[in-house]
Write a sequence for this structure.
């Protein structure tokens, strides 16, 4: 059983036994106890006072010696407190411990100076004086003193009851206040959770809008790519139409040449040379475009590459077929065209160079345009990504600050709760001290009543002894007077001489003199 659970009367009895031990044995003083209590590992059996003045100081204050043992932060952590709670509890306990030491020291000094409230009455009273003439007054004064003591005890008991009632009311108010604080914290948590849910919903909507915008940008990019592909296909179709037209014109010129025969032979030869050269240039141009298109297609999407490949293969098949047909015809007329071939080659070379320059400029413009579109698209993506990242960073920072604020509030609330718990324990400790003080006061009062009762019995016994002595003295005086009278009668009867006259006078004076 812990010492704070011992019945106050038993605690007082235990302390009085310690004082009795100190009266005949080794005395453990206040200084010894303070020095030993500075050791957190002190044995409670080693800090029990035996010096009478020190014991009286503990009895008067109601402080138990074990309450003076120094406690470390680790001790409170072993009791179940966390780091912050242990630090608060350790500081509060040390402050209360020093206050108790100061109270005990001051009370002990007051007891030594005869001013203390805890000066013990002892188990035996002093020898009571007695004056025969004031016995009744002393008895009356003792009766009044007992009545005053009884009324004082009733007042102290009433004060103790009132204190307990006030303590219970205060505890109820504190519990109601703590419940209100917990409800307010719960409400704040609900509001915070609601705000966080709203914020997450807003973030989700923003991300959804961003995804829709990204989808629109991707759709726009696909649309532009489709338009570009359609333009390329249209250009290829236009080239094929142009090729068909030229072939048709060649056939018409061939027919015209046949009709005019020799008159149009030179013109036909020129046309054939031109056609052959144009076909060769067209072949090279198509091959070059095929290579460039193939390189471009490798950078495009797989679907468009396949479609372009199919279109290129078909065009190649038609081109090869056309070349085969033309070569079959041209082989027959090759010898006729050799003279003009070089001139036509030169003209076609110049034209090819011009076409190459035009094609390069066009390709450069298209590449520049595509680059600008890609850069714009990438810039838009980067801006949007930065915006989303900024929103996420702000949200994370806000969440971090909210979490830190919540942690700080929880820490402060925990500190306040721990402080209130310590104060409540302190109040209970004070109540226990008060109960021990009241037990000591009752012990003193009972001892005083016992001493006063013994004193009253002593007064009564002294009065009875005085009356008995008075009765014995009166009886002795009566007997002496009777003896003197007998002597006088004998003198009167027998007569007496002058020598015995002085003896008779002396005896008479002795008998009738007043006795005290």
């Amino acid at each position: 059983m812990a010492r704070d659970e011992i019945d106050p009367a038993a605690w007082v009895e235990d302390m009085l036994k310690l004082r009795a031990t100190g009266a005949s044995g080794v005395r453990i003083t206040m200084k010894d106890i303070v020095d030993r209590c500075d050791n957190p590992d002190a044995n409670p059996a080693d800090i029990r006072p035996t010096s009478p003045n020190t014991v009286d100081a503990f009895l008067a204050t109601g402080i138990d010696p074990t309450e003076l043992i120094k406690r470390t932060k680790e001790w409170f952590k072993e009791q179940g407190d966390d780091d912050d709670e242990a630090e608060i509890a350790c500081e509060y306990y040390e402050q209360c411990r020093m206050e108790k030491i100061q109270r005990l020291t001051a009370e002990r000094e007051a007891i030594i100076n005869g001013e203390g409230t805890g000066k013990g009455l002892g188990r035996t009273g002093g020898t009571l004086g007695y004056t025969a003439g004031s016995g009744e007054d002393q008895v009356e004064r003792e009766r009044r003193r007992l009545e005053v003591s009884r009324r004082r005890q009733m007042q102290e008991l009433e004060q103790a009851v009132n204190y307990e009632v006030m303590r219970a009311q205060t505890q109820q108010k504190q519990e109601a206040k703590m419940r209100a604080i917990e409800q307010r914290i719960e409400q704040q948590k609900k509001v915070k959770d609601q705000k966080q849910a709203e914020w997450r919903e807003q973030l989700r909507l923003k991300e959804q809008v961003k995804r829709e915008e990204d989808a629109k940008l991707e759709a726009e990019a696909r649309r532009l790519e489709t338009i570009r592909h359609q333009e390329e296909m249209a250009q290829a179709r236009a080239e094929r139409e142009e090729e068909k037209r030229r072939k048709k014109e060649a056939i018409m010129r061939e027919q015209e040449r046949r009709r005019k025969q020799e008159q149009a032979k030179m013109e036909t030869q020129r046309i054939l040379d031109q056609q052959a050269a144009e076909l060769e240039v067209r072949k090279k141009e198509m091959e070059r475009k095929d290579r460039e298109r193939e390189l471009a297609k490798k950078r495009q999407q797989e679907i468009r590459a396949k479609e372009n490949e199919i279109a290129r293969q078909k065009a190649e098949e038609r081109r090869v077929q056309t070349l085969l047909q033309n070569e079959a015809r041209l082989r027959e007329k090759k010898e006729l065209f050799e003279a003009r071939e070089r001139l036509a080659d030169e003209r076609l070379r110049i034209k090819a160079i011009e076409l190459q320059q035009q094609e390069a400029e066009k390709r450069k413009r298209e590449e520049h345009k595509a680059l600008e579109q890609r850069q714009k698209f990438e810039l838009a993506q980067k801006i949007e990504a930065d915006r989303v990242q900024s929103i996420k960073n702000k949200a994370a920072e806000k969440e971090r600050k909210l979490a830190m604020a919540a942690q700080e509030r929880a820490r402060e609330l925990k500190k306040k709760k721990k402080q209130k718990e310590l104060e409540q324990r302190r109040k209970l400790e004070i109540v226990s001290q008060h109960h021990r003080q009241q037990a000591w006061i009752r012990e003193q009062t009972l001892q005083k009543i016992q001493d006063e009762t013994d004193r009253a019995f002593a007064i009564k016994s002294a009065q009875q002894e005085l009356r008995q002595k008075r009765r014995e003295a009166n009886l002795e005086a009566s007997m002496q007077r009777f003896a003197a009278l007998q002597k006088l009668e004998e003198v009167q009867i027998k007569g007496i001489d002058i020598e015995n006259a002085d003896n008779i006078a002396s005896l008479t004076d002795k008998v009738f003199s007043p006795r005290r």
Summary: The two ends are 65 Å apart (CA to CA).
